[in-house]
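[Q] Does anyone have a clean structure-token version of this?
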Amino acid sequence: MHGLIRLFLIGTLLLLAACSDEKPFSRHKPLPFPTPGQHDLVVLTSPGLLTHKADENGQYGGLEHDLVEIFAEELGVAVKYVVLSPDQIESALSNDKAHLAAAWLTPSENPKIKATPPIRYSHDLLIQHEASLPLQESSELAGKTVHVIAGSRQAATLQALQKSISSLQLVETQDPDIFNLLEALSERRIDFVALDSSLADIADQLFPNLQNSLTLKNEQPIVWLLGEKPNAELEARANAFVKRIQHDGTLAKLDDRYFGHVNRLTQADIIKFLGEIEATLPKYLKFFQAAQVVSGIDWRLIAAVAYHESHWDPNATSYTNVRGIMMLTEETADRLQVSNRLDPSESILAGARYINLLKESLPDEVQEPDRTWLALAAYNIGPGHFNNARKLAQKLNADPNAWYEMKSVLPKLGQAKYAQIMKTGRARGGEAVILVENIRSYYDILVRHAPAAPKQTEKKAESRGLKIGGGTGLKR
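[A] Here you go.
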């Protein structure tokens, strides 16, 4: 009898061992090294503005998304994204479901899980309405209710705080868009929101009646997680990539793309603009949307340009005789066959067409959104001065096709020594930088607070034989 039991146990153990070898994501069978045309770079990520987010046109962006794309381009491979909640990522990575995880993550508490050097640093922050009494220390969270994105780092931070503050209430929402929570906070439907500090300046721009409160957790590094036993070559390439982007301008350019403009407007500027969206914009909305139909430029970008130029005043006139809601020069108006610069319909359409002409004048290698930002700088100082700035950039070994570098070159047009080098008159290049950065902020605010033009608008235009221009290609 004992022999039969022993045989039964041995057979059972052998059967279990055989089954365990057939698990689809065994730690002993890591994904193959990504190779062109054969194996994609598989990346775990989470939805969010900093990580992986689709715009209204279905184009994905996000600071980490863009970094991953650059890394994959270096490897010569395509990327396959696996979108998970942040609290699901480590288990998926340990089961060899991906090559790396890029989801605004901090180093794992599991010392076996390897990570790249830090990409950036951030901390967890509490946000509240400006009309509420600010909290001074974490003990004041007793009896308070804080809303947070489910599975986020901030949720984990607050769960840890609950161990010492038992009356702290935590509400975890499944909606990954933190700005929906901030909107509810702005309208005082909820009391507190926890978010990543990297988003605080953007939150200030979109919701000026909010204020930063407590730092919930001190600054932490943001890394890519590589798993317990990453491919040695991939680990070396990823680590080298992260170190390099800190010094060659790659990360600085992406930081500028997502955060570089958000501190230009004051709280008073933003509050005034939000008021004008309600009071004045409806009068001209149909003209902006009609201009989108003809030009292909998002009507909200055209409206942002118009607001910066004239504060949506169709009768605006400068001392240099620049006039109308889009502040067109007489020369530009004649070129675009505008009969009356003070007619908002004519002015808006001409301004949109002019932006497209300036974009088309740039070399083919200029990518969006730089193409649009550079065109707007030319809109401000004129094509002649702008082309001089591009020539100066080349003399200074700066990239004339990159907004991040041109925003440092343009102000030099106002300096006598550079005017002598270029043998041209001085120009207010610094004003062009301010214009572009302000327009970027106004555009962001409009994207949040004003809907995109209805799709049927373009269909109606096509049925009437109107020519539709190309899209802006703008990404956050």
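[Q] Thanks! Anything notable?
[A] The longest strand covers residues 210-227.
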